[in-house]
Amino acid sequence: MGTERMTEIEEEGKRAFAEAGSDEVLRELEVRFFGRKSELTAALKGLKDLSAEEKREIGPSIQGTRTVLMEAFVVAKERVEREGRDWESERIDVTAPGIAEPLGHLHPITTMIAEIEDIFTRLGFDVADGPELENEFYNFDALNMPSDHPARDMQDTFWIESEGLDTRYLLRTHTSPVQVRYMETHVPPFRIIVPGRVFRNESTDATHEHTFHQFESLVVGETGDVTVGHFKHLAETFFAEFFGHKIDVRLRPSYFPFVEPGFEFDISCVFCDGKGCASCKGIGWIEIGGAGMVQQKVFEAAGYPRGKYQGFAWGFGLERLAMMKRRIPDARLFMSGDLRFIRQF
Ligand code: FA5
Predict the structure, then answer these.
(1) Do both 152 and 63 map to the same domain?
(2) 47 and 148, same structural domain?
């Protein structure tokens, strides 16, 4: 078989592959040109019987024809596949609106903590925190409430079984224990805020939940540097920023063992501007939290010398503030896990 025959096969094959219109035809052509009984295969097999000179003469043309036809076959295969596709059924409308994945978002209390932290950090406050599982010393004793102190009954407590331990554990009833924890490791002057979750073993209603959030603040300096006047000004500044308009703060004498003098503080009603409405029961003021000048016994519990420092502490409930700002009727909604409520924020 000579090189002329190879050229003929090549031409014939190229034409046949170019004209092939279906998979079946292609399979037939594959057998015809590359199959065991094809002329090409026979020619390749026959090479071994040729002399070296003949091999040199005809070998390359056999190989060349095979390569050309293989390429023609691949091209034809791709073309047949492309032509056979139902492109219309595969059309993608890139302008069709997508299907939105459901997205979660921050809990309203979390958002409010961030908002309040933002206001205080702009005023130069640091943010501190402490454990929710607290021990008796920090939650009570260090705050001037030894175990026989009647004030312990003011906050109904979830006690943790602590048998065999060297101290009794509980779920903290307020954020005030962080005052002592912070002072143990810091030297005045400082100003901090402490947002946190607290727990009380009490029956619930629209303004009482067993699990809620408090915001504590503590400002301490050398004796004479920090006064009740500073507290009132700070509270008015904070609440005005928080509600977006001027707010008055008033103090009423009250008792908390860890402050002396102690106060409860009210803000002018945010709904009627102090004129008197249903929300403030016609009084014009709304009760917000507790405050006072830090008891020297608390400084002593934290390891400070008596009389060297002076400061104020205050704390308020976050749910009650959120209820006021967003007009939410029930404190129990926040921890209810009801997504219909959460999704509104
Ligand atoms: C305290 O917890 C003091 N630690 C606050 C304090 C700090 C006083 C620093 C002095 C100096 P009281 O028990 O009143 O105080 O709680 C403070 C606030 O938490 C209340 O004014 C109220 O807004 C909120 N609160 C109390 N109990 C609940 C409850 N069960 N559900 C929702 N909010 C509550």
Answers:
(1) no
(2) no
- End of a domain among 84, 117, 149? 84
Count of beta carbons in the 10 Å neighbourhood of residue 213: 23
Q: What percent of the chain has pLDDT over 70?
A: 100
User: What is the position in ligand 1's atom list of the atom closest to the CA of 173?
Assistant: 2
Cα–Cα distance, 176 to 243 (Å, whole number):
25
3-state secondary structure of 262: strand
Pairing of strands 126-127, 190-199: parallel
Residues within a 6 A CB radius of ligand 1: 155, 174, 176, 200, 202, 208-209, 212, 214, 216, 256, 259, 289-292, 313-317, 319-320, 331
pLDDT at position 51 over 90 = no
Of the candidate ranges 154-158, 282-286, 302-306, the one whose mean pLDDT is the lowest: 154-158
Q: What is the pTM of this model?
A: 0.74
CATH number at residue 147: 3.30.930.10
At 79-104, the pLDDT tens digits run 888 888 888 888 999 999 999 898 88
Q: Residue 99 Cα, ligand 1 centroid: separation in angstroms?
A: 45
Q: Establish if 94 belongs to a structural domain.
A: no
CA pair distance 235, 241, nearest whole angstrom? 10
- Shared domain for 116 and 56, answered yes or no, is no
Domain holding 18, by residue range, is: 3-84
- Which of 5-14, 94-103, 119-128 shows the highest mean pLDDT? 119-128
In terms of Cα–Cα distance, which of 3, 62, 71 is closest to 38?
62
Over 70: is that where the pLDDT of 1 sits?
Answer: no
90 occurs within a structural domain:
no
Contact 230, 236 (CB under 8 A): no
Flag whether pLDDT at 118 surpasses 90.
yes
8 Å CB contact between 317 and 212: yes
Examine residue 281 and state whether it is found in any structural domain, yes or no.
Answer: yes
80 lies in the same domain as 112: no
- For 318, half-sphere exposure in the C-beta direction (CA atoms, 13 angstrom radius) is 27
Enter the tokens of residue 153.
Answer: 């009954």
Type of residue at 74: V
How many domains is the chain partitioned into structurally?
A: 2
